[in-house]
Amino acid sequence: MGKATGFKEFDRELPKKIAPSKRVTNYKEFVGKYSDEELNNQAARCMNCGVPFCHSGCPLGNVIPEFNDAVYNKEWEEAYNILESTNNFPEFTGRICPAPCEAACVLGINKPPVAIEEIEKNIIEIAFEKGFVKTNAPLERSGKTVAIVGSGPSGLAAAAQLNKAGHTVTV
């Protein structure tokens, strides 16, 4: 665990948002990013509970205390690998998910929960900046073709997993 007393020392802080009057002038993201120190402080708030309910709160089963620990220790590639092990598309799931993991966070019993959604978004953005995100074509194709009906997050995740297994996929 990164900082055993982090949840006592740091309050939950969310990145600043661009004013609505400026948001309507473009289609860019309107939620800012944490500074390195802010990201480190937010990851330090994770208590690494004996029973991390955030795991079961996450629909994808993300291993949240582990990637928070890697973020706290500035092990960016490790944080990305942990996140990517359970999440095919953290670059958009971190933006559209209503974050039930935060509702399940044990710290939320008497303090604001860990900002898991924001930490996840920062992990993937840093992974793109540092070049950790790479396409991995399968070593060989199975010769089988699979059709996926539906291009929502689950359909795309199924297509990605089937492609990794070597099947040709049509969405």
Describe this entry's structure for a reader:
By secondary structure, the protein is mainly α. Helix 3 crosses helix 5. The longest helix is centred in the C-terminal third of the chain and has 15 residues. The protein starts with 5 loop residues before the first helix and ends with a strand.
The named CATH superfamily of the largest domain:
Alpha-helical ferredoxin
Q: Which strand order does the major sheet show?
A: 1-2
How much helicity do the residues have?
40-55%
What's the average pLDDT? 93
Query: How many DSSP-defined strands?
Result: 2
Major sheet attributes: 2 strands, parallel
* CATH class descriptor of the largest domain: Mainly Alpha
The CATH topology of the largest domain, please? Fumarate Reductase Iron-sulfur Protein, Chain B, domain 2
Question: Strand percentage, roughly?
Answer: under 5%
Order of helices and strands: HHHHHHHHHEHE
Low-confidence stretches: none
Computed Rg: 18 Å
